[in-house]
Structures are given as structure tokens and as C-alpha cells.
Amino acid sequence: MMTSQKPSLELNSDAVTNILVVGIGGQGVMTAADVLSQAALALGYDVKKTEVAGMAQRGGVVTSHVRFGKQVLSPAIRPGDADMMIAFEPAEALRWHTHMKSGAVVMVNDYPLIPPVVSIGLYDYPDNPLGQLADGSVELHHFNAGEAAIELGDRRLVNSIMLGAIADHLPFSPEILEQALLARFQRKGEALTELNRRAFTLGRQAFNQVDSLATA
Amino acid sequence: MNAPQPVQQDQRQFISGNEAVAQAARDAGCSVASAYPGTPSTEILEFIAAYPEIYTEWSINEKVSLEVAIGASLAGSRALCAMKHVGVNVASDALMTQTLIGAVGGLVLVVADDVGLSSSQNEQDSRYWGRFAHLPVLEPADAQEAYEMTRLAFGLSEQYDVPVMVRLTTRICHVKGVVVCSQPDIYQHKNFTKDPARYVMVPGNAKKRIPLMMERDQQLSQVSEEHPLNRIESGSDTEIGFVTSGAAYFHVKETYPDAPVFKLGLSHPAPIEAIRDFAASVNRLVVVEEVEPLLETELRAAGISLYGKDILPRIGELSPQVLTPCIDKLLGKNSDEKLISTAELFPRPPTLCVACPHLGIYYCLSHIKNTIIAGDIGCYTLGAGHPWNALDTTISMGASLSVAQGIDKGRSEADQNKNVLAVIGDSTFMHMGMQGLLDITYNKGNVTVLLLDNRAVGMTGGQNAPSSGLNIHGEATLQVDFRKLCEALGVKPERIHEVNPYELPTLFKALREEVKIKEPSVIITNQPCVLTERYSKLPPLKVDEDRCTGCSNCLDVGCPAILVSRKETVIKPNGREKELSFVNIDTAACTGCNLCTNTCAPDAIVPAFNVGNINAVEVK
Ligand SMILES: Cc1ncc(C[n+]2csc(CCOP(=O)(O)OP(=O)(O)O)c2C)c(N)n1
Ligand code: SF4
Ligand code: SF4
């Protein structure tokens, strides 16, 4: 396992941070990308966010690119340039791993979602998608955020859990990401805000546990 | 950690190109906005509808939509009409003549091209319309420019008496960026003034307007040569100079930060002379435009030598990863760009939603033999895919009916015993399908029409339509009565059936009956799209594993909540091998529509009630 290369980003450096958020329509990929963008925006960065979501509501692949820094030109992250990936599904992590920089942080919810084309036998789901990612080229973390969300009471919480998991890897403090996340629930009441706060915290803890296991 | 601290950001908004266009319409004093939904343009009108000061409507189709905006402009309002690229084909009849009339209140047509075909039936370049209809074309490169150029478009339209096109692409519409708005305009609403010589385009009048249009072309060419939207950005490496516009501009800047760039904002008419001067300052000129070689052709015709689509692809986006190998090749370099973009894996094609009311229809269609099925455009186009494979054609909105009529009239002797069907959604039927039905009844065709009325425009996100009985704001209004409408279009009352698409036996009966009868008939479904508020969930189901025989019949329904849990190969008494697929139902996803229970002979699909933790999945 490689050591974490936390990207350092000064507002007056020309560096741009590239984060890829990948998953499947309905999982909250775009919302997670929005929260990351809002946090970066609050810090005064230039931010661009772009999605490839062909018919996202119908179970297709959703990929969101978030780029921030002093100035961002093209909105799309090119292959080999992503500093971080948040993957809501293990095979999707594998699908996009060619976009990662060497040593990049890849945070995966390892709860698989099998599409109908696999169910009916037209294609195979890879036997061990994360095994293929664990070749040392990236810093891989994974845990079952899907189960954790269901335990917390709603599978839609995956989103907040995954944001919590990545929070300690960003070039800004985790609290800023948490604020950006919770701001979305302000109008929806204290209960929902609290639930998402718990999900976020759970994500941070899960990551730390995984981390200590990984370096053991 | 030396983390940066939050900054004051009142004016900095993080919005998409579509939202930026909406804010520009508001700040320009636009008072009428119309659209028919279509990816990637749909959200423009949804955002505008949030401003109470602007009259906003979902129109029936793009032609109607543009004509509403034209009327508003002639009445003295600033008006905006938004559509996706193929919408302009529908609206073009109005557009091609309106250009002779011009505009009174600023008339802005915002067109969104789906470069890369993320969800469209073709990839066409709307900039052609600028050439064809003699309109200026503005091409923003990001959300901030979408805001600025849309604002500018209204003024340009009034100043030069011309409808103005703002050409967006998916990478502008759906990319969010930082946008800062400026001081709103105070627009003085004009009155309607009778002017038949200008507004009544009979040949005598139109003939007189053509020279004026030509004169306007001349003026606009001049404007373009000096316009600040067309600018040179100098660079230290003059080996290649780029001429570019729209989203491609930022791709070029990202990839070649040191190269001189001629950035086009007002891209048609092109500033040919300014580009000629620019060309002289660089070794090689490369035109980077998405999609067709339009500018390239014009520059070549003006005698400027350049590289364009001879080295760059003519399809899809010209992103950094596409540009690099092409330019490397031009420079004689070995490209180290990674060609592989994603890992080789199973695809995740879009599918119909869990419990979609279209599922039952496709289950039936895939089980009826001897058919030719003309499809149309909407969620139900997915019926062409697995597991149903039930559509034989899909072309353009409304084409199912008229193409079916043509198949009926044009079929061979051998095909005479086939059943010709057309499948169309409610919104598409109202858009351009009604005419086809009248054509069938008038010309005595023999087509069985399936009108899938889910009370919404499902494909683009469940917008309201006259079938919803709700307007763009969700307020009650007319709800079209499809039975009466079809009767009025000449279908015999006894040939019209209204069916519940979750009741397979009823569906099969209606279908089998109607395909036998040699006259036009319409089967109308009556259950709502599950994305809309009309839809109500029922308690979920599960599979009783002890009873499941692995027959896999329920998989033919195509509901994404039904998953294969285990496969087994058995030898049948006749010695043949058979593959069994045992299934389970994802209880957290199932909404209990009961459709699949119709297909399960051993009654293995049962209520999930007392097993799964309902609370775990039903948190609101
Ligand atoms: C000319 C044109 N305009 C708009 C669109 C975008 N579009 C695709 S399908 C569709 C309508 C779908 O509604 P409906 O027919 O009711 O079917 P549903 O998706 O609800 O099943 C629209 C507006 C298009 N493809 N072509
Ligand atoms: S959006 Fe509506 S019409 Fe489209 S697949 Fe889903 S349920 Fe069906
Ligand atoms: S009842 Fe069957 S078809 Fe309907 S949503 Fe549940 S699994 Fe899908």
C-alpha cells in the first residue's frame, strides 16, 4: 500500500485538484459532486463540475468530474489526471481506474449492483473488481457503505457516508465539506440533518478503520 | 494544516449553463419564454419558470414553441425559445420565414446540441441554421459566457432586426461553473404595430424583404470582424494557432496554454478577414470546431490554408484527450496520450424504471409473433433493448404512426399476414403523432396503435404536458381526453380500448383482438410514470425461494428489481440441457406493482411484508 499523498493546494498555486465521482443513476453521485464543488467554492476556488449521465434516471453509469483550483479551464478530467475517486460501486471503480494518477486515493463502496444485462446472462460481472485495482498503482480504500446506509435506516445515506470517507483526504478541512453537505438539509429539518451528520461521521470513522487495517 | 478559509461569495454563483441562460433571460427583461423539453436543453425553461415575472409555457412541440416566441416578439416583448438540436428541424418552417420578418422585441432561440449523443437520435450541428436562415450565432464556452451572450443576444436581435441563435452543447448546458451576474436591463415593452408589408409573408411582401436580409448579412459580417466576442489571445508558441469556439475553446486552452488562439463568440457570420490576419501570425492554423467543418469550409473558400477535419474527428467532443494525439501527429510527434479511456467491462445500458407502466406492454409485444412494430421516441424506445427486443424502427418524434402506415401500404405479398403496430407515448403523440393517426384513418390504413399515456414526458424527467392536466407550474389546466381525440381523428369508438398496463391478460386480449381486425385501432394505457407524484407505491414483493422453479419467465418483464440469484443447468427428460435461473426481488427497490406475479406459474412471488425491514427502506 502506498502512503497517502494528500494533495496540497494553495489558492495562489496553479495546481488543480481533480476528483472523479462515479456510480449508477439514483445513487446520489451528482449530489456528492455538488457538495464537493460547494465546499471548494466556499473557499474561493474556481470550480467546474461536469457530468456524463446519459439517461441517468434509467440505471445508467453516472460519472461526475469535479475540478477546482485558482483557475479551471476544461471541465473534463483526462485519463491519468484524477487525484481522487469516490466510487459508489466496485465495478464502476474498476471501469474508471484508467483515469487515476499513480498514487491517487480511490475510495470505494464495495456493495455491488448487478445490472439486468448481467442478470440475464449477456455479460459477466468481474469476479473480484477490487482485486484488479489493488495492484499498487493507487491507494485503495473500500468498505461496505451500502450496508452501513441500510443499517442507518436509508440506503440514500450512502452519499453522505462516502463524502465522510473522503473528507480527510481533501486539500481542505473535513469540517468545510461537512458544512457544505449539511447546508443542503437546512430546509428539510433537524432530523434529516442529524441523520446525515451521523452518516458523514460514520464515513470518516469507517475510513480510518479501513486505513489502519490497510497499513497493518 | 494550513487550510484555506471560506470567503465572502455573494455574487459568485455555482450554476449550470442552462441556469445561466435562465438568469440572463430574467436580467434582460425577457417576458415570454417557451420550450418543448429535450435533453440537454430541458432545464432552461424549468429554471425560467421559477421567475414569476416571466410567462413560461411547455409548448406542444418546437414549432409551436418558436411561433409563440415569435408572436411575443411581434407584440413587443423580449422572448426566448429553447430546444434541443433536433427540435430546430421541427421549428424550421417558422424559422426560415421569420428571418425575413426579423424581430420587434428581442427574439432569442437557444439551441442545445447533443455533441457526443448522450441521449439523442442523431448528432447534428445547429450552426448550419445560422447559415441557412441568415441568423447570427453566438457560441458560449462556459456558464459565465452563456449568461453574458444570452443577455447580449436580445440587444443584438433588436439592433439588427433579426432572430438570434445561442448555440449551446451538452458540455455547456450541464457543466456547472462560477457565474457572476450583472445589472439587469430595464426593457421598454413596445406595443403591437400593424405592419402587414412586414408581418404578412405573401410572395409580394417576402420578395421585398429578401434584399433587406442580404443587407443585414453584410452588416453582421462587418460587426463580426470587430466584435469583442471575437478576440485573439496571444501565445508564445506560434507553431500552431487555433481558431475555436464553444466548449472546444477551453479544451484547446487546457491542452495548449502557450498557443495563440482566435476565440470566436459571434461565430456566424465569421470574421474572415480578422482570421486571415491571425493566420499570417502563426506557422500553421488549426480550426477546432464541434461538429461539422462549417467555419473550416468558409475559411478555405476565402483562400486561407488550414488544418481541420482532415486531422480532427467529425463526431463527438474535441476534448483534450481527443485533441492531443491528432495535434501530436500533425507535429510529427509520438503521442503518449493514453488511448484507453475506461476499462473493458459490461455495459450498463439505461433500462425502464422499476414498475414502469411500459413494462407490461413490452412483455406482451415480445410474446406476440408475426409483427412489424414501428417505434417512437421516449422512454418506451428502450423497448428496443433487452430483454424485449420489441421495436423494428425508431426515427423521429411521431414517426411511428406514419412509418407504420407506409409499412402497411408498402409491404410485400409475403408480409401481408404480418401485424403492423405503432408504439407511441402521450407527449410524442401530441407533439407530432396526431397527424399520423389522421393520415391512417383518412387513407384507410391498417395499423394497431399503442398509445402509452403515462401522463408525463417521462424521458426528459417527467415534465407536465396536456395529458397531465397540469401546466409548467403544476397548476390545474385542460387534460386532454385521448379517447375523444382519437375518435375525432376518425378511429371508430369500438376500436379504441383503454387498458391498465399492469394487467397482462387484459393487454393480451386487447392486442390479439385488434391485430386481427383490418382497420385502425388504438389501445390506450392509463397508468402514470413512476417518477411523477401521481404514482403511488404499493407494499413490495419477494420471491419464495422454495417455490421458485427457475423458469425465468419473470425476467422477460424486464423490471430491474428482479435479479438472478443462482443459475443451474439441468437435463430434461428428453435429454436436452436447460438452464434454470432462480431469482429474487430487491425488496428495497420493488414498489409492488404486481406485474411480475402475472408471469409466475408457481405463484412464487409473494408479499415481502413480514420479512424485510420495511422501515429500513421507506424513510421519507
Ligand atoms: C424533436 C425532438 N424534440 C424533443 C426530443 C426529446 N424527447 C425525447 S423523448 C420525448 C418525449 C417523451 O415523452 P412521451 O412520448 O410521453 O414518452 P415517455 O418518455 O413518457 O414514455 C422528448 C421530448 C426529441 N428526441 N426530439
Ligand atoms: S421515467 Fe417513467 S416512463 Fe420512463 S422508464 Fe421511468 S417510469 Fe417508465
Ligand atoms: S412487483 Fe414485480 S414488476 Fe412490479 S416492481 Fe416489484 S418486482 Fe418489479
Automatic annotation (TrEMBL), chain A:
Domain Pyruvate/ketoisovalerate oxidoreductase catalytic: 25-205
Keyword Nucleotidyltransferase: no
Taxonomy, superkingdom: Bacteria
Lineage: Bacteria, Pseudomonadati, Pseudomonadota, Gammaproteobacteria, Oceanospirillales
GO molecular function: oxidoreductase activity, acting on the aldehyde or oxo group of donors
Keyword annotations of the record: Oxidoreductase, Pyruvate
Pfam family, one: POR
Protein's recorded name: Indolepyruvate ferredoxin oxidoreductase beta subunit
UniProtKB/TrEMBL annotation, chain B:
E.C. code: 1.2.7.8
Cofactor needs: [4Fe-4S] cluster
Pfam family, one: POR_N
Main enzyme class: oxidoreductase
4Fe-4S ferredoxin-type domain residues: 539-569, 581-610
Binding positions ([4Fe-4S] cluster 2): C559, C590, C593, C596
Residue stretches in coiled coil: none
GO terms classed as biological process: small molecule metabolic process
Catalytic activity: indole-3-pyruvate + 2 oxidized [2Fe-2S]-[ferredoxin] + CoA = (indol-3-yl)acetyl-CoA + 2 reduced [2Fe-2S]-[ferredoxin] + CO2 + H(+)
Molecular function GO labels: 4 iron, 4 sulfur cluster binding; indolepyruvate ferredoxin oxidoreductase activity; metal ion binding; thiamine pyrophosphate binding
Swiss-Prot/TrEMBL keywords: 4Fe-4S, Electron transport, Iron, Iron-sulfur, Metal-binding, Oxidoreductase, Pyruvate, Transport
Note accompanying the cofactor annotation: Binds 2 [4Fe-4S] clusters. In this family the first cluster has a non-standard and varying [4Fe-4S] binding motif CX(2)CX(2)CX(4-5)CP.
Residue positions binding [4Fe-4S] cluster 1: C548, C551, C554, C600
Function: Catalyzes the ferredoxin-dependent oxidative decarboxylation of arylpyruvates.
Subunit structure: Heterodimer of the IorA and IorB subunits.
This protein's name: Indolepyruvate oxidoreductase subunit IorA
Provenance organism: Amphritea atlantica
